[in-house]
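Module 6 notes. Inverse folding takes a fixed backbone as the condition and produces residue identities as the prediction. Think of it as a translation problem where the source language is geometry and the target language is the twenty amino acids. Below is one complete input and output pair. Work through it position by position during the lab.
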């Protein structure tokens, strides 16, 4: 009987140790998940900001291109009128 009690106590100690390890691992996983979610949020915000900036620069480029095209067209028209 004493031998059986001793074995059960050892099993209980082992299971408690396993439970403590599992709890520690769960806490680590939860912390890493929180960090990963924060990183994703930050990256999403950065990506949105970069998209806005890119859109801004593209619209500036389009504006400059269209102005250049109009100036070139005006020069060609004035040159052809002067030739006539």
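Target side of the pair, the amino acids:
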């Amino acid at each position: 009987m004493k031998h059986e009690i001793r074995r059960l106590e050892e099993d209980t100690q082992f299971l408690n140790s396993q439970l403590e390890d599992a709890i520690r691992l769960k806490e680590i996983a939860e912390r890493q998940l929180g960090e990963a979610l924060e990183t994703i949020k930050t990256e999403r915000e950065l990506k949105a900001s970069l998209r806005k900036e890119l859109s801004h620069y593209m619209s500036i480029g389009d504006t400059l291109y269209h102005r250049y095209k109009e100036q070139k067209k005006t020069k060609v028209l004035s040159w052809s009128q002067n030739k006539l």
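Reference fact for the lab report: Helices lie at 2-83.
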